[in-house]
Amino acid sequence: MTIPAKYENDVLRPLAAVEIREGTVVEVRVPVDQSVGGARRSIKDLPFFGMWKDRDDIRDGVEYVNRLRDNPRG
């Protein structure tokens, strides 16, 4: 069951009627994209950015991907 809720003043408040027994322990999952501040991170800040920068066979990323799409088995 998924229940939409809003977090206010240290309390999760359901946005719809909830049909569960009083005192039921629940598990809350908060989506990762709901970061505090709401600012979108730059791709350059992500840990995988530039991981292939030292490879000689990938000079242009777009060209490399297009080549793989045209001939996926090499």
Short description:
With 74 residues, the protein is low in regular secondary structure. It has one helix spanning 61-70, and strands at 5-8, 11-14.
Keywords:
14% helix, 74 residues, single chain, two-stranded antiparallel ribbon, 1 helix
Word description of this protein:
There is one protein chain. The protein is largely without helices or strands. 14% of the residues lie in helices and 11% in strands. It is built from 1 helix and 2 strands; from the N terminus they run E-E-H. The protein has one helix spanning 61-70; strands at 5-8, 11-14. A two-stranded antiparallel ribbon has the order 1-2. A hairpin with a 2-residue loop joins strand 1 (5-8) and strand 2 (11-14). The chain is elongated and about 60 Å long. The protein starts with a strand and ends with a helix. The model has no long low-confidence stretch (mean pLDDT 83).
